[in-house]
Amino acid sequence: MPFLSLSLNNFRNLKNDKIDISAKEIYFVGENGQGKSNILEALYYSAYGASFRTHVDAQLIKHGTDSFSINALYQQERGSVQKIGITYQNGVKRIEKNEKRIQDRKELINTIPCVLFCHDDMRFATGEPECRRFFLDQSLTMFDPLYIDDMRNYKKVLKNRNQLLKDKSYDMLAIYDVQLAKSGLEIQKKRKNAVFQFNDIFGKLYENISGMSGVSILYIPSWKEIPDTVGTRFPTADDITAALAQKHDQDKVMETTLSGPHRDRIIFMHEGRQFIPVASTGQQRLVALLLRVAQAVYYSRITATKPVFLMDDVMLELDPDKRQKMTALLPEYDQLFCTFLPGEPYERYKHSTTRIYHIEKGEWND
């Protein structure tokens, strides 16, 4: 199992102490607002150097203090014990792996791969298109550091190109077209392949849980494929550069770039029409939940590695029958962390080796 212990200092409302998490499954049980989710957040922060609840690290500091630190011990497959240490003070974050400073968070990729299930995942089903693009990008960045570079390059070029349009300084526009096409096409290729593989996973999962077949994911890239004599082909950088040039006038009027991966759409379909607008709230929740399951399966297929599951009260959103099916369909994991309210039947899901902590006012007791 990867996580062995977690040491916290001035993180959220949690007490300054070390918690033993060297078990296959660990349940955190407590009322809302006591600190259950904060522990999952600390685990996620250890794995990725960022929070899943805020982009502002200063918000993680315990009230009345001016810094926080997290130290996590984890075990690699070969059995060696490793350490991740993160401190945040005076607006500066320092991440260390085995006492050696990490300069870029992408160096943490594959260190402790975590798949997070939380209430906010509903936005992947019902939120704006950027929410589904975020999910797809997150799935790829879990194992592909080159995709992180592609995204960073694209966002940098896009920002500069948009600034030219706002400043009405068009001399360099053609140069940025070439750069945008190059990095954007790499993103589009990888997104298309990821959705193809997700469809092999997601539809089957949805049918197994709900009994409804034919639910799928449709990827609609902003840069379309090119018609040719045998159908269509994937566009080249030259194709995209030419297409961008044709839209210069529109971009100038709107003062922004109107095409590219930042405009891609991901849609859920059923029997030839969009599914989410006609789906019930329960069906929408199931879509969001099974996306995470599919993400875990996808990651395991690509890397031959089992992830860690962080599940934050997600079982509350399912009726008892679907909850049981969902538990049975979870793919293999290296370690599982779940939060529960005291009244939930968490005893039904535990194993002989499951460790249960009761959380109250930021403190834990087993």
Structure description:
- This protein is α+β, with helices and mostly antiparallel strands.
- Helix content is 39%, strand content 23%.
- It contains nine helices and 17 strands.
- Strands 2-1-4-5-6-7 form a six-stranded antiparallel sheet, covered by helices on one side.
- It is globular and about 65 Å long.
- The model has no long low-confidence stretch (mean pLDDT 93).
How is the largest sheet built, in terms of strand order?
Answer: 2-1-4-5-6-7
What's the helical proportion of residues?
A: 25-40%
The biggest sheet, with number of strands, parallel, antiparallel or mixed sense and barrel status, is:
6 strands, antiparallel
Identify low-pLDDT runs.
none
Structural class: alpha+beta
Overall mean confidence score, pLDDT: 93
Q: Overall 3D geometry?
A: globular
Strand/helix succession = EEEHEEEEEHHHHEEEHHEEHEHEEE
Strand share of the residues? Answer: 15-25%
Query: What distance lies between the first and last C-alpha atoms, to the nearest angstrom?
Result: 20 Å
